[in-house]
Design goal:
This protein is an alpha/beta fold and 268 residues long. The chain is built from twelve helices and seven strands.
Length: 268
C-alpha cells in the first residue's frame, strides 16, 4: 500500500536543496556549501547506516547465523529470496522486469544495493563506489544490482550525470522491494538522526567528487519516497547471505567486506 504524507514547508531533502541553491547562486566549492549546512539539515540523510551485518564466513557465530535465518523468512515462512523474485521493478529505460530475471536463481551471486532515492547525494556517493568496484564484482561472477526509489527517468538522470552503468540500475517507484525486505521508513530516521553529520564529513572528499554533476531533479516526484531508507543484500540463488538495513545516511555497508564475502561464497 502506498503511503501518502503531508510534508511541512522545507520538509524535503534539505541538503539537496542547499546544493541546488549553491549551484544557482555561484560556482563556489562544495566544501563551503557542506560546511554551511547545519547539523539538523544534514540529518535528513538517514539512509545508509551501520545496521546489522550478517554474512556467512568460516568464523560466523551461531547467533549471527540465527539472525540471518530469521531475516531470510517472511511472516508466512517464505524465503525473502522467493518473495523478492516475484517483485516487479523497472530498468533505467523504463522496461518492466522481475527480480528473478536479474540473476541465476539457483547458483548465481548478486549484490542488491537499495539506495534511498535517486536524488539523495549520499546515494550518489554510494553509487560511485559501487561503480568503481564493479570490475571486481564482474571478475568474481557477481551481478551488481542498484535500485532506487523513483521513476525510470530519475534513474536515467543519475546514470547519465554521475555516471553509472544503466544496465545495473533499476527503479522501484512504489517501493515494493523495500517493503518486501523490511527496510526502515519514516520522518524521524530521515531527518533527525544525529549520527549522520559525522559520517558525511568523514567521507567529505568522496562525497564532493560524487556530487560534482549532482542535480536535485533526480529526486522522486512522490515526496513521500524521500523518507525511505536503503539497505544492502547479497544473494546466492534465492538464499540470503548478507542483510543490512540502513538506519542513518552516509554510513554505507563495508563494500570491501561484501566483495570478500562474495568471493568466499563462490568458492565454497
Amino acid at each position: 500500500m502506498k503511503t501518502t504524507i503531508s510534508l511541512p514547508p522545507g520538509g524535503v531533502d534539505h541538503f539537496s536543496a542547499h546544493l541546488l541553491f549553491s549551484q544557482r547562486r555561484s560556482s563556489s566549492s562544495l566544501h563551503s556549501s557542506l560546511q554551511s549546512v547545519s547539523s539538523s539539515s544534514l540529518s535528513f540523510l538517514s539512509a545508509l547506516s551501520h545496521g546489522c551485518r550478517y554474512s556467512f564466513t568460516s568464523t560466523t557465530t551461531m547467533e549471527s547465523l540465527a539472525v540471518v535465518e530469521s531475516a531470510s523468512l517472511t511472516g508466512d515462512g517464505e524465503s525473502i529470496g522467493e518473495v523478492l523474485s516475484n517483485v516487479q521493478i523497472f530498468t533505467a529505460a523504463g522496461e518492466a522486469v522481475m527480480f528473478k530475471d536479474l540473476w541465476d536463481q539457483k547458483e548465481g551471486m548478486a549484490v542488491v544495493a537499495l539506495l534511498r532515492h535517486f536524488g539523495c547525494p549520499c546515494c550518489w556517493e554510494l553509487a560511485a563506489t559501487l561503480k568503481e568496484l564493479k570490475p571486481r564484482f564482474d571478475s568474481a561472477g557477481v551481478k551488481l544490482i542498484a535500485v532506487g526509489v523513483g521513476a525510470a527517468d530519475k534513474a536515467r538522470i543519475l546514470a547519465e550525470r554521475l555516471p553509472f552503468p544503466s544496465e545495473c540500475l533499476y527503479a522501484d517507484p512504489d517501493r515494493k522491494a523495500y517493503n518486501v525486505l523490511g527496510l526502515y521508513y519514516g520522518v524521524g530516521r530521515t531527518f533527525f538522526n544525529p549520527a549522520t553529520t559525522a559520517k558525511v564529513f568523514s567521507r567529505f572528499e568522496s562525497l564532493k567528487k560524487a556530487v560534482k554533476n549532482y542535480t536535485i531533479s533526480a529526486t522522486t516526484d512522490d515526496w513521500s519516497g524521500i523518507l525511505q531508507q536503503g539497505g544492502m543484500f547479497v544473494f546466492k540463488g534465492k538464499s540470503l547471505l548478507y542483510a543490512r538495513k540502513d538506519e542513518s545516511s552516509g554510513d554505507h555497508a563495508p563494500l570491501d567486506d561484501i566483495l570478500n564475502m562474495c568471493c568466499t561464497a563462490q568458492v565454497a
